[in-house]
Amino acid sequence: MAGAGPTAVLSSGKKMPLLGLGTWQSKAEEVYNAVKVAIDAGYRHIDTAWVYKNEKEVGQAIKEKIAEGKIKREDVFVTTKLFTAFSRPEHVRECMMQSLADLGLDYVDLYLIHSPLCFKYGSNPFAHAGNPEEVYDEVDYVDTWKGMEPLVDEGLAKSIGVSNFNKQQLERLVQNCRIKPAVNQVELHPYLAQQDLVDFCKKNNILVTAYSGLGAPALPKMMSNKTDDPVLMEDPSIVAIGKKYGKSAAQVLIRYQLDRGVSVIPKSVTPSRIQANFDVMNFSLSKEDLATLAGLDRNLRYLNGERFSTHKYYPY
Ligand SMILES: NC(=O)c1ccc[n+]([C@@H]2O[C@H](COP(=O)([O-])OP(=O)(O)OC[C@H]3O[C@@H](n4cnc5c(N)ncnc54)[C@H](OP(=O)(O)O)[C@@H]3O)[C@@H](O)[C@H]2O)c1
């Protein structure tokens, strides 16, 4: 994975580039170009999900870059996620096979349980206009995990992990699994440092991936009921740190995670931003600047998922 930037070795023994391209809310026609621009810029890690409805275009872009000779399949780390309406162990494989077919791949590098929250098979909890409780399902995420493990045995997923798991949920999963979760992907940025969770993951050899690391400035209403959250990329301390290094606030936020040993997957469909977000390999933040960023923690969750607050596995 030459040129991929810093990498981590997962508990599965596989290497994962820490910096990847996020694709949530990237429209199909935009994500195709975004992935191609990202691969040209040096990204070797792409994050998608069944529910993003863009896996076909993500896969098409990867396929073309392989055909061009720019990369080989093994050079690019592809993550996708099991949608919450496939949480019953007997449905896990179905969701995986749909993602593989759409991506046009024989395997993914990382397959994540998208969330411990589980919903009825076939339901769309985000489109559901009524009471969210009508679509809740009673599935233990430890049972979902039992549907994930065979995917590794079959070679369909090189590594498996989780997303949106809190410390208690992870602790229980770690105690009740055959294959340990390699990754936990959660919201993480200076306003939501989650140091306790990060420390627990480090101790248990679980790599943390930061989502919404730029503060998710284009957050859809379904993910939050708040309207007055501060804009992370406009935080004066972050902007001031950037000025010292000749970098933007976005670049400081990305470098912050890399310097903490955390993976980060900024989303963009704008070519200049995709390139700029990767242009973070030529500096690192001083101890003092890292401490300043750590000091901004205010437990602010942009994606608070309030709509599902009555779910038994909330809060994540
Ligand atoms: N597991 C989960 O439950 C979960 C939840 C949320 C996100 N994720 C993953 O994490 C990825 C990142 O999180 P996110 O999409 O929520 O938010 P994010 O990466 O914090 O922010 C993305 C937004 O920032 C803008 N942006 C990107 N680079 C910029 C720059 N250099 N300057 C100014 N604005 C910039 C993008 O706009 P343009 O695209 O218009 O350039 C987009 O609106 C997702 O795409 C997804 O892959 C996972």
TrEMBL record:
Residue sites binding substrate per the record: H114
Catalytic reaction annotation: S-nitrosoglutathione + NADPH + H(+) = S-(hydroxysulfenamide)glutathione + NADP(+); a primary alcohol + NADP(+) = an aldehyde + NADPH + H(+); S-nitroso-CoA + NADPH + H(+) = sulfinamide-CoA + NADP(+)
Site keyed Lowers pKa of active site Tyr: positions: K81
GO molecular function: alcohol dehydrogenase (NADP+) activity
Enzyme class: oxidoreductase
Pfam families: Aldo_ket_red
Keywords from the named record: NADP, Oxidoreductase
The protein's Enzyme Commission number: 1.1.1.2
Active-site residues, Swiss-Prot/TrEMBL: Y52
Residues in NADP-dependent oxidoreductase domain copies: 19-296
Domain of life where this protein originates: Eukaryota
Keyword NADP (UniProt): yes
Family the entry assigns: Belongs to the aldo/keto reductase family.
Name assigned to this protein: alcohol dehydrogenase (NADP(+))
Organism of derivation: Branchiostoma lanceolatum
